[in-house]
């Protein structure tokens, strides 16, 4: 389960796990508040707010250099990026202030354990990535002869599935182009989904983007091969040609950099 579609909304598996964890936390907190101590209800709201704010703040502090160059991304929470040790400190602080009885403390612990258990269960299911091999496809390239995807086996590969009509693809593309130009241990493949050469050329020229290895996939064969439910999708493929992990939706600079480092590390083993 890499993602779940809820009407027009596409939730990546890790984000679905977080949503379920929060929902379970609020439900169990409400039950504990009515049965054990009414202060648990007020605590749960403050714990959630302070925990999320602290987790985001901690992530920004830990990646200060990146955010200094792009300060607007501090508020781009849809990209992900939360440091949960900071959240734990904030929740502990709110608990010390708001919870004064053993019954309240017991209820809060029950709510937290239920939330963490639910989050971890869904996250484990969502992060189970099948080791799918590269498809046996020969694909047309924008500025070079056609390439057989399987021929890239032997070195780690980052495959980005994108289209020019996709707003989140457009937002992440400049950052991905920058990292692709400096990456030494991995190969980037930008596999366009469903668009013609003229559309792709017009988009890249208008945005002044220089992308290596832009591949045309007019029939979206790569997306079907890996069962990708939406765009953008970034696939991390090991040197053995098998899928290692997937990021669905817009990816942040920090998440992409960390995934590349993991991928390159596996390739060196």
Write a compact overview of the structure shown.
With 269 residues, the chain is α+β, with helices and mostly antiparallel strands. The protein is built from nine helices and nine strands.
Descriptive terms for the model:
elongated; two-stranded antiparallel sheet; 52% helix; 269 residues; alpha+beta
Break the fold down into its secondary structure elements and pairings.
Blueprint: E1 3-6, E2 9-12, H1 13-35, H2 39-62, H3 64-69, H4 84-98, H5 102-126, E3 138-141, E4 147-148, E5 157-162, H6 167-182, E6 187-193, H7 197-206, E7 214-217, H8 221-225, E8 233-237, E9 243-248, H9 253-268
Structural description of this entry:
The chain is of the alpha+beta class and 269 residues long. It contains nine helices and nine strands. It has helices at residues 13-35, 39-62, 64-69, 84-98, 102-126, 167-182, 197-206, 221-225, 253-268; strands at 3-6, 9-12, 138-141, 147-148, 157-162, 187-193, 214-217, 233-237, 243-248. The protein has a seven-stranded mixed sheet with strand order 4-3-7-6-5-8-9.
Calculate the terminal CA-CA distance, rounded to whole Å: 28 Å
The residue ranges in which pLDDT falls below 50 over 5 or more consecutive positions are none
Structural shape: elongated
Strand order of the largest sheet: 4-3-7-6-5-8-9
Please count the helical segments: 9
Percent range for helical residues? 40-55%
Q: How many beta-strand elements?
A: 9
| Mean pLDDT figure | 89
């Amino acid at each position: 389960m890499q993602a779940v579609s809820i009407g027009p909304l596409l939730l990546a598996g890790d984000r679905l796990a977080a949503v379920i964890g929060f929902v379970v936390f609020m439900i169990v907190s409400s039950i504990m508040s009515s049965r054990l101590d009414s202060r648990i209800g007020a605590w749960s709201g403050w714990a959630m707010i302070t925990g999320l704010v602290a987790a985001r703040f901690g992530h920004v502090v830990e990646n200060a250099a990146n955010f200094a160059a792009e300060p607007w991304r501090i508020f781009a929470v849809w990209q992900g990026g939360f440091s949960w040790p900071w959240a734990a400190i904030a929740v502990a602080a709110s608990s010390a202030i708001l919870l004064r009885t053993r019954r309240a403390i017991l209820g809060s612990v029950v709510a937290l354990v239920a939330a963490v258990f639910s989050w971890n269960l869904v996250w484990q299911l969502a992060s189970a990535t099948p080791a799918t091999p590269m498809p046996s496809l020969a694909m047309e390239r924008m500025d070079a002869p056609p390439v057989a995807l399987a021929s890239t086996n032997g070195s780690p590969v980052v495959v980005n599935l994108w289209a020019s009509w996709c707003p989140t693809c457009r937002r992440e593309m400049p950052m991905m182009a920058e990292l692709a130009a400096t990456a030494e241990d991995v190969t980037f493949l930008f596999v366009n989904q469903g668009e013609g050469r003229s559309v792709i050329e017009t988009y890249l020229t208008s945005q002044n983007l220089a992308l290596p290895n832009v591949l045309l996939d007019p029939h979206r064969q790569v997306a079907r091969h890996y069962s990708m439910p939406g765009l953008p999708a970034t696939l991390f493929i090991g040197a053995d040609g098998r899928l290692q992990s997937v990021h669905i939706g817009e990816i942040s600079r920090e998440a992409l950099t960390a995934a590349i480092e993991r991928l390159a590390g596996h390739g060196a083993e």
